[in-house]
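Appendix B. Raw example, untouched.
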Amino acid sequence: MKILAIESSCDETSASIVEQGRNVLSLVVASQIEEHKIYGGVVPEIASRRHIESISGVVKKAIKDADLKISDINAIAVTYAPGLIGSLLVGVNFAKGLSISTGLPLVPVHHLRAHIAANYIAHKDLEPPFLCLVVSGGHSHIIEVKDYTTFNIIGKTRDDAAGEAFDKAARVMGMEYPGGVQLDIIAQKGNPYAFKLPRPKVQDSLYDFSFSGLKTAVINQIHNYNQKGELLCIEDMSASFRLAVVECLSTNFLKAAKNLGYKKLVLAGGVSANSLLRERLSEECKQNKWKLYMPPLNLCGDNAAMVGSQAYYEYLYGNIANIDLNAFATKSIDTQI
Protein backbone atom coordinates (compact mmCIF):
# COMPACT_ATOMS: atom_id res chain seq x y z
CA MET A 1 0.00 0.00 0.00
CA LYS A 2 1.35 3.39 -1.05
CA ILE A 3 0.32 6.51 0.86
CA LEU A 4 0.90 10.11 -0.21
CA ALA A 5 1.48 12.05 3.01
CA ILE A 6 1.41 15.81 3.60
CA GLU A 7 2.89 17.72 6.55
CA SER A 8 2.39 21.46 7.16
CA SER A 9 1.96 21.85 10.92
CA CYS A 10 4.57 24.58 11.41
CA ASP A 11 7.20 25.96 9.03
CA GLU A 12 8.09 22.91 6.92
CA THR A 13 6.06 22.07 3.81
CA SER A 14 6.64 18.39 3.19
CA ALA A 15 5.28 15.53 1.09
CA SER A 16 6.28 11.88 0.97
CA ILE A 17 5.29 8.55 -0.53
CA VAL A 18 5.50 5.74 2.02
CA GLU A 19 4.88 2.08 1.23
CA GLN A 20 3.52 -0.33 3.84
CA GLY A 21 4.26 2.16 6.61
CA ARG A 22 8.01 1.50 6.65
CA ASN A 23 9.49 2.02 3.19
CA VAL A 24 10.00 5.65 2.11
CA LEU A 25 9.85 5.98 -1.66
CA SER A 26 10.29 9.75 -1.68
CA LEU A 27 10.55 12.66 0.75
CA VAL A 28 10.48 16.36 -0.11
CA VAL A 29 10.83 19.14 2.47
CA ALA A 30 10.59 22.87 1.72
CA SER A 31 12.06 24.72 4.69
CA GLN A 32 11.25 28.28 5.75
CA ILE A 33 14.05 28.60 8.32
CA GLU A 34 16.04 31.28 6.50
CA GLU A 35 13.02 33.56 6.24
CA HIS A 36 11.96 33.16 9.87
CA LYS A 37 15.52 33.78 11.10
CA ILE A 38 14.92 37.49 10.52
CA TYR A 39 12.23 37.48 13.22
CA GLY A 40 13.93 35.12 15.67
CA GLY A 41 11.13 32.56 15.41
CA VAL A 42 8.22 31.35 13.31
CA VAL A 43 5.73 34.03 12.22
CA PRO A 44 2.43 32.12 11.77
CA GLU A 45 1.02 34.34 9.01
CA ILE A 46 4.19 34.12 6.95
CA ALA A 47 4.38 30.36 7.51
CA SER A 48 0.85 29.74 6.21
CA ARG A 49 1.45 31.94 3.15
CA ARG A 50 4.62 30.02 2.27
CA HIS A 51 2.78 26.71 2.64
CA ILE A 52 0.22 27.92 0.10
CA GLU A 53 2.99 28.84 -2.31
CA SER A 54 4.94 25.58 -1.87
CA ILE A 55 2.51 22.75 -1.31
CA SER A 56 1.49 21.99 -4.89
CA GLY A 57 5.07 21.83 -6.13
CA VAL A 58 6.23 19.80 -3.14
CA VAL A 59 3.52 17.18 -3.66
CA LYS A 60 4.21 16.94 -7.39
CA LYS A 61 7.91 16.45 -6.73
CA ALA A 62 7.27 13.73 -4.16
CA ILE A 63 5.20 11.78 -6.69
CA LYS A 64 7.82 12.33 -9.41
CA ASP A 65 10.73 11.35 -7.15
CA ALA A 66 8.97 8.07 -6.32
CA ASP A 67 8.60 7.42 -10.07
CA LEU A 68 4.85 7.05 -9.64
CA LYS A 69 1.61 8.53 -10.94
CA ILE A 70 -1.26 9.66 -8.78
CA SER A 71 -3.15 6.57 -9.98
CA ASP A 72 -0.54 4.43 -8.21
CA ILE A 73 -1.41 5.95 -4.82
CA ASN A 74 -3.82 4.15 -2.47
CA ALA A 75 -4.57 6.85 0.11
CA ILE A 76 -3.93 10.49 1.04
CA ALA A 77 -2.66 11.30 4.55
CA VAL A 78 -2.31 14.66 6.24
CA THR A 79 -1.33 16.12 9.60
CA TYR A 80 -4.52 17.65 11.02
CA ALA A 81 -3.41 18.44 14.62
CA PRO A 82 -1.77 19.93 16.61
CA GLY A 83 0.17 22.89 15.25
CA LEU A 84 -0.21 26.39 13.87
CA ILE A 85 -3.82 26.53 12.75
CA GLY A 86 -3.18 28.51 9.58
CA SER A 87 -0.41 26.17 8.50
CA LEU A 88 -2.43 23.06 9.30
CA LEU A 89 -5.40 24.33 7.29
CA VAL A 90 -3.28 24.65 4.16
CA GLY A 91 -2.28 21.00 4.31
CA VAL A 92 -5.70 19.73 5.36
CA ASN A 93 -7.55 21.61 2.62
CA PHE A 94 -5.06 20.58 -0.06
CA ALA A 95 -5.36 16.94 1.02
CA LYS A 96 -9.15 17.14 1.05
CA GLY A 97 -9.17 18.57 -2.47
CA LEU A 98 -6.84 15.83 -3.65
CA SER A 99 -9.02 13.20 -2.00
CA ILE A 100 -12.15 14.54 -3.69
CA SER A 101 -10.53 14.75 -7.12
CA THR A 102 -8.98 11.27 -6.98
CA GLY A 103 -11.55 9.40 -4.91
CA LEU A 104 -8.79 8.21 -2.58
CA PRO A 105 -9.46 7.76 1.16
CA LEU A 106 -8.30 10.57 3.45
CA VAL A 107 -6.30 9.55 6.53
CA PRO A 108 -5.91 12.12 9.36
CA VAL A 109 -2.69 11.90 11.38
CA HIS A 110 -1.90 13.42 14.76
CA HIS A 111 1.48 15.19 14.70
CA LEU A 112 2.87 13.50 17.84
CA ARG A 113 1.81 10.07 16.62
CA ALA A 114 3.73 10.81 13.44
CA HIS A 115 6.89 11.76 15.36
CA ILE A 116 6.75 8.41 17.15
CA ALA A 117 6.25 6.64 13.81
CA ALA A 118 9.51 8.10 12.47
CA ASN A 119 11.13 5.28 14.43
CA TYR A 120 9.17 2.66 12.47
CA ILE A 121 10.91 3.88 9.33
CA ALA A 122 14.38 3.76 10.88
CA HIS A 123 13.91 0.55 12.88
CA LYS A 124 12.07 -2.15 10.96
CA ASP A 125 11.93 -4.39 14.04
CA LEU A 126 10.22 -1.85 16.30
CA GLU A 127 6.68 -2.76 17.33
CA PRO A 128 4.46 -1.66 20.22
CA PRO A 129 4.13 -1.85 23.16
CA PHE A 130 6.88 0.52 24.35
CA LEU A 131 7.41 3.69 26.37
CA CYS A 132 8.17 6.84 24.41
CA LEU A 133 9.57 10.26 25.27
CA VAL A 134 8.29 12.80 22.75
CA VAL A 135 10.14 16.11 22.97
CA SER A 136 9.66 19.01 20.56
CA GLY A 137 9.25 22.76 20.40
CA GLY A 138 5.67 22.58 21.60
CA HIS A 139 5.43 19.24 23.40
CA SER A 140 7.13 17.21 26.13
CA HIS A 141 5.33 13.93 26.80
CA ILE A 142 5.99 10.49 28.25
CA ILE A 143 3.64 8.16 26.40
CA GLU A 144 2.74 4.50 26.64
CA VAL A 145 2.37 3.24 23.07
CA LYS A 146 0.16 0.21 23.63
CA ASP A 147 -0.36 -0.48 19.95
CA TYR A 148 -0.06 1.52 16.75
CA THR A 149 -3.15 3.62 17.44
CA THR A 150 -3.60 3.34 21.21
CA PHE A 151 -1.71 5.81 23.39
CA ASN A 152 -1.70 6.60 27.10
CA ILE A 153 -0.14 9.81 28.43
CA ILE A 154 1.98 9.08 31.51
CA GLY A 155 3.49 12.52 31.96
CA LYS A 156 3.67 15.88 30.20
CA THR A 157 4.83 19.44 30.73
CA ARG A 158 2.67 21.66 32.90
CA ASP A 159 3.89 24.83 31.16
CA ASP A 160 6.67 25.31 28.58
CA ALA A 161 7.91 22.48 26.41
CA ALA A 162 11.60 21.58 26.53
CA GLY A 163 12.14 22.70 22.94
CA GLU A 164 10.47 26.03 23.62
CA ALA A 165 12.72 26.55 26.66
CA PHE A 166 15.80 25.79 24.54
CA ASP A 167 14.74 28.23 21.83
CA LYS A 168 13.92 31.07 24.23
CA ALA A 169 17.12 30.70 26.22
CA ALA A 170 19.12 30.62 23.00
CA ARG A 171 17.39 33.75 21.73
CA VAL A 172 18.23 35.67 24.91
CA MET A 173 21.85 34.63 24.40
CA GLY A 174 21.77 36.08 20.89
CA MET A 175 21.63 32.87 18.87
CA GLU A 176 19.86 32.64 15.53
CA TYR A 177 16.64 30.68 15.00
CA PRO A 178 16.34 27.72 15.38
CA GLY A 179 18.01 28.43 18.71
CA GLY A 180 17.83 24.97 20.22
CA VAL A 181 20.08 23.55 17.51
CA GLN A 182 22.61 26.36 17.93
CA LEU A 183 22.59 26.01 21.72
CA ASP A 184 23.32 22.29 21.46
CA ILE A 185 26.36 22.93 19.27
CA ILE A 186 27.72 25.76 21.44
CA ALA A 187 27.11 23.77 24.65
CA GLN A 188 29.58 21.12 23.52
CA LYS A 189 32.39 23.63 24.13
CA GLY A 190 31.26 24.66 27.63
CA ASN A 191 31.39 23.52 31.25
CA PRO A 192 27.96 22.10 32.21
CA TYR A 193 28.63 22.72 35.90
CA ALA A 194 29.64 26.39 35.61
CA PHE A 195 26.19 27.76 36.52
CA LYS A 196 23.76 26.49 39.14
CA LEU A 197 20.29 26.04 37.65
CA PRO A 198 17.18 24.45 39.19
CA ARG A 199 15.75 21.06 38.28
CA PRO A 200 12.02 21.81 38.73
CA LYS A 201 9.73 19.04 39.94
CA VAL A 202 5.94 18.83 39.92
CA GLN A 203 4.85 18.04 43.47
CA ASP A 204 1.66 16.14 42.67
CA SER A 205 3.03 14.06 39.79
CA LEU A 206 5.91 11.62 39.42
CA TYR A 207 6.30 12.07 35.70
CA ASP A 208 5.12 15.58 34.70
CA PHE A 209 7.62 18.25 33.67
CA SER A 210 7.89 21.98 34.31
CA PHE A 211 10.36 24.08 32.33
CA SER A 212 9.01 27.58 32.90
CA GLY A 213 10.98 28.17 36.11
CA LEU A 214 14.17 26.78 34.62
CA LYS A 215 13.78 29.00 31.56
CA THR A 216 13.17 32.04 33.77
CA ALA A 217 16.20 31.20 35.94
CA VAL A 218 18.60 31.15 33.01
CA ILE A 219 17.13 34.31 31.49
CA ASN A 220 17.47 36.12 34.83
CA GLN A 221 21.11 35.08 35.16
CA ILE A 222 21.82 36.34 31.64
CA HIS A 223 20.09 39.66 32.37
CA ASN A 224 22.05 40.06 35.60
CA TYR A 225 25.32 39.72 33.72
CA ASN A 226 24.17 42.24 31.11
CA GLN A 227 23.01 44.77 33.73
CA LYS A 228 26.34 44.58 35.54
CA GLY A 229 28.26 44.86 32.29
CA GLU A 230 29.99 41.57 32.97
CA LEU A 231 31.04 39.17 30.22
CA LEU A 232 28.91 36.03 30.14
CA CYS A 233 30.49 32.81 28.93
CA ILE A 234 27.87 31.67 26.43
CA GLU A 235 29.44 28.22 26.10
CA ASP A 236 29.23 27.55 29.85
CA MET A 237 25.68 28.89 30.18
CA SER A 238 24.53 26.83 27.20
CA ALA A 239 26.14 23.70 28.60
CA SER A 240 24.67 24.27 32.07
CA PHE A 241 21.19 24.90 30.71
CA ARG A 242 21.32 21.94 28.35
CA LEU A 243 22.36 19.64 31.20
CA ALA A 244 19.50 20.87 33.40
CA VAL A 245 16.87 20.28 30.70
CA VAL A 246 18.26 16.86 29.78
CA GLU A 247 18.39 15.76 33.41
CA CYS A 248 14.75 16.76 33.91
CA LEU A 249 13.68 14.85 30.80
CA SER A 250 15.76 11.72 31.35
CA THR A 251 15.07 11.45 35.10
CA ASN A 252 11.29 11.30 34.70
CA PHE A 253 11.42 9.13 31.59
CA LEU A 254 13.71 6.53 33.14
CA LYS A 255 11.74 6.61 36.39
CA ALA A 256 8.55 5.85 34.45
CA ALA A 257 10.26 2.99 32.60
CA LYS A 258 11.42 1.40 35.85
CA ASN A 259 8.11 1.83 37.66
CA LEU A 260 6.01 0.61 34.74
CA GLY A 261 8.31 -2.25 33.79
CA TYR A 262 9.24 -1.13 30.28
CA LYS A 263 12.49 -2.40 28.79
CA LYS A 264 11.85 -1.05 25.29
CA LEU A 265 12.19 2.75 25.13
CA VAL A 266 11.75 5.17 22.23
CA LEU A 267 12.81 8.78 21.73
CA ALA A 268 10.95 11.03 19.27
CA GLY A 269 10.38 14.67 18.28
CA GLY A 270 12.56 17.55 17.17
CA VAL A 271 14.51 17.70 20.44
CA SER A 272 15.42 14.03 20.00
CA ALA A 273 18.25 15.42 17.86
CA ASN A 274 19.84 16.94 20.99
CA SER A 275 23.25 15.28 21.33
CA LEU A 276 23.36 15.20 25.13
CA LEU A 277 19.84 13.75 25.44
CA ARG A 278 20.73 10.97 23.01
CA GLU A 279 23.99 10.29 24.84
CA ARG A 280 22.42 10.27 28.31
CA LEU A 281 19.55 7.94 27.36
CA SER A 282 21.90 5.62 25.48
CA GLU A 283 24.17 5.30 28.53
CA GLU A 284 21.30 4.70 30.96
CA CYS A 285 19.61 2.13 28.74
CA LYS A 286 22.88 0.29 28.25
CA GLN A 287 23.44 0.12 32.01
CA ASN A 288 19.90 -1.17 32.58
CA LYS A 289 20.10 -3.56 29.60
CA TRP A 290 17.12 -1.85 27.96
CA LYS A 291 16.62 -1.43 24.23
CA LEU A 292 16.57 2.21 23.07
CA TYR A 293 15.27 3.34 19.68
CA MET A 294 16.01 6.82 18.33
CA PRO A 295 15.22 8.35 14.93
CA PRO A 296 18.10 9.35 12.65
CA LEU A 297 18.76 13.09 12.65
CA ASN A 298 17.07 13.60 9.27
CA LEU A 299 13.78 12.24 10.68
CA CYS A 300 13.81 14.11 14.01
CA GLY A 301 12.28 17.30 12.62
CA ASP A 302 8.91 17.72 10.93
CA ASN A 303 8.61 15.65 7.74
CA ALA A 304 5.91 13.89 5.75
CA ALA A 305 7.57 10.47 5.81
CA MET A 306 6.68 10.03 9.48
CA VAL A 307 3.10 11.08 8.63
CA GLY A 308 2.90 8.44 5.93
CA SER A 309 4.23 5.80 8.30
CA GLN A 310 1.64 6.45 10.98
CA ALA A 311 -1.10 6.84 8.35
CA TYR A 312 -0.61 3.24 7.26
CA TYR A 313 -1.57 1.98 10.72
CA GLU A 314 -4.38 4.51 11.08
CA TYR A 315 -5.77 3.23 7.79
CA LEU A 316 -5.54 -0.41 8.89
CA TYR A 317 -7.44 0.47 12.07
CA GLY A 318 -10.17 2.20 10.05
CA ASN A 319 -9.34 5.79 11.01
CA ILE A 320 -10.58 7.40 7.80
CA ALA A 321 -11.80 11.00 7.70
CA ASN A 322 -14.86 12.44 6.05
CA ILE A 323 -14.59 15.44 3.76
CA ASP A 324 -15.54 17.72 6.66
CA LEU A 325 -12.16 17.04 8.35
CA ASN A 326 -10.97 20.15 10.18
CA ALA A 327 -7.62 21.22 11.59
CA PHE A 328 -6.99 21.70 15.32
CA ALA A 329 -4.31 23.82 16.96
CA THR A 330 -4.43 21.60 20.06
CA LYS A 331 -5.53 17.99 20.40
CA SER A 332 -4.43 15.21 22.73
CA ILE A 333 -2.58 12.25 21.24
CA ASP A 334 -4.92 9.78 22.94
CA THR A 335 -8.09 11.02 21.20
CA GLN A 336 -9.44 10.15 17.77
CA ILE A 337 -10.76 12.59 15.16
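End of appendix B.
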